[in-house]
Design brief:
The structure is a single chain. With 177 residues, the protein is of the alpha+beta class. The protein has a domain of 120 residues: Protein Transport Mog1p, Chain A (3-Layer(aba) Sandwich). 27% of the residues lie in helices and 31% in strands. A seven-stranded antiparallel beta sheet has the order 1-2-3-7-6-5-4, with helices on both faces. A hairpin with a 4-residue loop joins strand 5 and strand 6. InterPro entries: DUF3558 (IPR024520). Pfam families: DUF3558 (PF12079). This is DUF3558 domain-containing protein.
Length: 177
């Protein structure tokens, strides 16, 4: 076989490959939908080993959204600190459970994201008070939990308050190395 004939054959194969590639490069129709994951987003895993829930929120009035507490913060259950700001009661803790467990326990909530952390918001109402919580995934089987109760508040006000509270605490939790 001559050199020219080999070059022509290789050139033919190259043209055929290019033609086949161009035919398969574009797939008609809408783009594929992303596959949902069940894993929470944790862009900045937090070091929660030295977390003190009674030092998680400001008590000196330094944050515009919180006046000084009317009752000093106190441990109410192991690892849970209770704050009282007038009629607003707040509980803060780091819980040892998976974020997905929160969603199962509070099916009427909604998901959001705060500072790179998947966050779940939910409220329950009874005749006397509105009881709302926010849970942020901060590490493997670690969830920052902030619950709020206020007999005078509505759900939209408590949503804004919970967002500010969880943002404040996340800003102060050190990142894991």
């Amino acid at each position: 076989m001559s050199h020219t004939s080999r070059v022509n054959r290789l050139l033919g194969v190259a043209v055929l490959c290019a033609a086949l590639t161009s035919c398969t490069a574009e797939i008609p129709g809408p783009p594929p939908k992303p596959v949902p994951t069940t894993s929470p987003r944790i862009d900045k895993p937090r070091n929660v080993s030295a977390f003190d829930p009674c030092k998680a929120l400001p008590t000196d009035g330094s944050q515009w959204f919180l006046k000084p507490p009317t009752v000093p913060p106190a441990i109410e259950n192991p690892g849970v600190c209770g704050y009282t700001f007038g009629t607003l009661k707040v509980h803060v803790s780091i819980d040892e459970f998976e974020y997905d467990e929160v969603k199962k326990s509070n099916p009427n909530g909604h998901q959001g994201e705060i500072d790179g952390h998947t966050t779940w918001f939910a409220c329950d109402t009874d005749a006397s008070t509105l009881d709302c919580g926010v849970w942020a995934a901060v590490g493997y089987a670690r969830t920052l939990t902030i619950t709020t109760q206020d007999p005078r508040a509505d759900e939209s006000w408590l949503l804004r308050m919970r967002t500010m509270l969880v943002t404040h605490v996340l800003d102060r939790l050190p990142k894991s190395s």
